[in-house]
Amino acid sequence: MEAKLVVQAPGGQRHEFPLRTAVTAIGRSSGCDLVLDYDYVSRLHARIEGTEDGFIIIDCESTNGTFVSGRRVSGMQLMRSGDIMTLSDISITYLDAADEPTTATVFRPIATDCPIRCDSSTWEVWIGDKLVETRLSLREFELLSLLTSRYGKVCTRDELGKKAPSPRTSICAQETRPRRAWFFR
To answer: Taking the model in full, what pTM does it have?
Structure first.
């Protein structure tokens, strides 16, 4: 098993993000590996780097800071399994590769006839048999997961409102008229 991050969004959704590269950039920018498009998250908020001693977290001079177990990170800090990082109102738990494997939690029923699949354990999106290569932000992934779980059904304004992106977000499901219609690009 590889080391991973378990990201908990403000709405309670949990997603596993495997640490497969030597450096993982975290922030609001679409160029980051882990995109968190939330207020108070900087464009490049923090980095997680693999070293001989394990993974370290480095705050990238973010405006609101990166916290591990309630303490602000200055410079770099070695991560221990179970450490909880806080960026804005998002909690991220670091799990070491040596830990027992965890199972992915299914958050919503999967519509069997939907051509789009969202895998919350890998953050991968599939359309038919094709993997979507663009990594979605946490908000984008949550919204797409909601829409695919409700495939063929009407989503209420309240359901969409809980997962709606901020106005500056460019996403795969975008509001064409305020609070009325959503479509896939």
So the answer is: 0.60
